[in-house]
Amino acid sequence: MADDSKIAGLEPPTPRAQHPLREVVQMFAGNRAAVVATAMLTIIVLAAVFGPMLYPTDPFEMVWAPFTPPGTDGFILGTDYLGRDMLAGLLNGGRVSLTIGLVAALMSVFIGITFGALAGFYRGLVEEVLMRITEFFQVLPTLLFSMVIVALFGASLTVVTIAIGVVSWTAVARITRAEFLRIRELEYVTASRAAGASNLVLMTRVILPNALPPIIVQAALMVGSAILFEAGLAFLGLSDPNVVSWGQIIGSNRTYILDAGFTVTIPGLAIFVTVLSISLIGDGLNDALNPKLRRR
Amino acid sequence: MAIRACYALALLLAVVVLNFTLIHIAPGDIADTIAGDMGGATEEVMAQIRADYGLDKPFPVQLGIYLGNVVRMDFGYSFFSNTSVTGLIAERLPATLLLVFTAQIFALVIGVILGVISARRPDGLFSHFVTLLALFGYSAPVFWTGIMLLIGLSLMLPLFPVAGMIDVTLIEAPLWRQYLSVAHHLFLPALTLASIFLALYSRLCRASMLEVLGADYIRTARAKGLSERDTVYRHALKNSLGPVVTLAGLQFSAVVSGAVLVETVFSWPGLGTLALQSILARDTPTILGILFFSALVVIVGNLLTDLALRLIDPRIKGGGG
User: Fold this and answer.
1) Which of A120, A128, B105, B193 makes an SS bond possible with A177, Cβ 3.0 to 4.6 Å?
2) Does the global pTM surpass 0.90?
C-alpha cells in the first residue's frame, strides 16, 4: 500500500489513519491498572531471570535455623522448615513457575488454535469430531487427570508442562472456532479464495491474523491459569523434586502454618501478584483490542 | 433430554477408555507396584501376579473385561486399602458431592447478589469493590486462599474447626447435632472453593444485568409504573440469570479440580484426598474408579444445569442445545 503513494510521487497523506497497532498501544497505555500490572510483571520476570545470579544462595541448602522470621539475621524473607533461605527459594521458584506457565500456555494455545481453526474452517464432519473431543476435555476433571499423568510418567518439568498444556486448550479452541466461523463468510476471504489461495493459506494467512485479537486475550489469561495449575500440582507434591517452585514451597511448609505462617503466605503472595498482573494485562488487552466492548 | 443422556453416557465411556489406555501405556504396572511393596519378587511371582490381575491378556481383552465390570459397577480391588474400589469410593463420594454442590450454590447465590447490587450502580464504590473481589478470586491460588482462611478463622480466631468433616465425639449424639457439626466443618472449605467461581459469576452477572437493564422491555416495565424492586428482581434478574447459570454449568469440571486442592488443605474426607493418596501409592484400580466418578459428577452437574436453564427460561426446549 505504501508503494502506491510513492509511485504517484505524492507525499503520504497526513497520518490521520495511523497504524492499527498504535491505536492498541495507546488504548492500553491509557489503562492505568494495565500499565501498573505490566510494570509489576516486568519486575517479577526480571527478578526470576537475574535474581538467582545476583543472589546465588542455593535454595536447597540448609543455611540457618528453621523458621527464622523475615528480616532477622540477614534473611530478608526468613527461612523455611528446613532452614532454607526463602528468598533464594522464591527467586529460583519464580523461574520454574513462570517458565512452566509460559510454555504450557503456548502449548495449549497452539493445540487450541489448531483444533478451533480446523473445526471452524472445514465445518461438517471435521467440526463435529473435533468439537466432540473438545467437549470431552471439558468434562474431564483436568487437575485429577494431570495428577495421574504426572504420577504415571514421572514428575519432570517436561511431563508437568505437557500435563498442563494438554488439558487447558478447550477455551482457545472454542474461541478460535467461533472467530473462524464468522470470518470465513466475509468477502475478503471469498476474494482470496477466488484469487486462488489454498486452504492452508486461507487458514493461516487470511483468517488467522484477523481472528487473533480475542485469542491473544485468552492466551494472556492462559499463562495465569497455567501458573495456578502448576502451583496446584506442586502444592500436592506432584512436581519435579529437583527444582523449587512457588507451589512446592507452600506445599512443603503447609504443616507448619502454626509456627511460621510467613513460609506459606509469602510464596502465595508471589503467585497471587503474578497472576493478578497477568489478569490485569489481559483485561487491558481486551479493552485495547476490542474497543467496542468498552462502551458496555 | 433422552439424547442428552445418551450423549452423556458416550462421554463417560470415552473417559473410561482414555484413562484405561493411558494407564496401560504408562511405564510400570500393578505387578511392579506389588513387587515393590514386597521388597522385590522373582520373574515367576511377577508372572503369577500378572496372570492373577489379567495383565497377561492382550490389551483389547483387558479393556473389554474392565468395561464389562464397570457396567456392573465393579471397579476392581484396591490392594492398597484392601477393600473393593466401589466400596472405597462410595464411602468418599458423598463428602465430595456435598462440598462441590455447596460451593457452587454459595458461589452462585453470593455472586448473583454482588453482581445485581453492583449493576444497579455501575460506577459506585461497591461496584469497584466487586471488581476487585473478582480479580482476587481468580488470581489467588485456591489452596492458598484456604490456608489463609485457616490461619485467620481457625487458628488466630478459633471460629471454625481446622480439619475433617465432623466432630468425632458426636458419634452418639442426636442426628441434628451431627448435621450441625458437618455444616460447621463444611463452611470454610465451601467458601474457599466458592471464592474462585464467585468472582466469575459476579462479574458475568454484573455485565449481563447491565445489558438487560438497558433493554426496551425494562423501559416498558418502568414506564407502566412497576416499582424499581419489581423491575430489577422480577424482570431483569430473571433474564440475566441465563448466562450465569450456563457458565456455572461449564465450571463443574473446574469445581471438581478445585475440590481436590481444597480437600487436601482442610483434610476433607472426599474423593480428592483419596485420589492423592492412591496416586502416590500407584493404586491403579482406585485411580481409574475416581476418574470415572469425578467425570460422572461433572456430567450430572451439566445435566442439572440444563434442567435449571429450562426452569429459568421456558423458551429453551429439550433435544437441541
Assistant:
1) A120
2) no
pLDDT tens sequence across A120-161: 888 888 888 888 888 888 888 889 889 988 888 888 889 999
**What is the DSSP secondary-structure string of A198-260?**
-HHHIIIIIIHHHHHHHHHHHHHHHHHHHHHHHHHHHHTT-S-TTS--HHHHHHHHGGGTTT-
What is the tens place of the pLDDT at every residue in A183-208?
Answer: 888 888 888 888 888 888 888 888 88
pLDDT at A13: 55
- Euclidean distance between CA atoms B109 and A251, whole angstroms: 31
For residue A199, what is its C-alpha cell? Answer: 486452504
From first CA to last CA, the distance across chain B in angstroms is: 10
Query: Over 70: is that where the pLDDT of B320 sits?
Result: no
Q: In this structure, are residues A67 and A74 in contact, taking their beta carbons and an 8 Å threshold?
A: no
CB B130 within 8 A of CB B202: yes
Distance CA A216, CA A205 (A): 16
Residue type, B288: L
- H or E element at residue B84: strand B83-84
Nearest residue to A138 via CA among B261, B14, B67? B14
Q: How far is CA B67 from CA A2, B12, B60, B266, in A?
A: 65, 11, 10, 34
The CB-based long-range contact list for A178-187 (8 Å cut-off, 24+ gap) reads A178/A116, A178/A120, A179/A116, A179/A120, A179/A207, A179/A210, A179/A211, A179/A214, A179/A215, A180/A116, A180/A117, A180/A119, A180/A120, A180/A121, A180/A207, A180/A211, A181/A120, A181/A123, A183/A207, A183/A210, A183/A211, A184/A120, A184/A121
Phi, psi of B160 (to 5 degrees): -125, 150
What is the C-alpha separation between A235 and A229, in angstroms, rounded? Answer: 10
- The partner residue sitting opposite B257, judged by closest CB among A136, A143, A153, is A143
DSSP 8-state code for residue A56:
-
Q: What is the ipTM of this complex?
A: 0.85
Question: Which of B96, B77, B73, B94 is closest to B85 using CA atoms?
Answer: B77
| Cβ of residue B209 closer than 8 Å to a chain A Cβ | no
Chain B residues near residue A174 by CB distance under 8 angstroms: none
Helix runs in B26-169, H state only: 30-38, 43-52, 59-71, 85-120, 125-139, 142-150
Stretch B181-202: mean pLDDT: 87
Mean pLDDT of the region B293-305? 86
The single-letter DSSP state of residue A23 is H
Residue B78, H or E segment: strand B77-78
Question: 3-state class of B224 per DSSP?
Answer: coil
Which residues of chain A have a Cβ shorter than 8 Å from any chain B Cβ? 135-136, 138-145, 147-149, 151-153, 224, 228, 231-232, 235-238, 247, 250, 254, 257-258, 261, 264-265, 268, 271-272, 275-276, 279-280, 296
**Whole-number Å distance between alpha carbons of A210 and A233:** 36
Please say if the pLDDT value at position A7 is more than 70. Answer: no
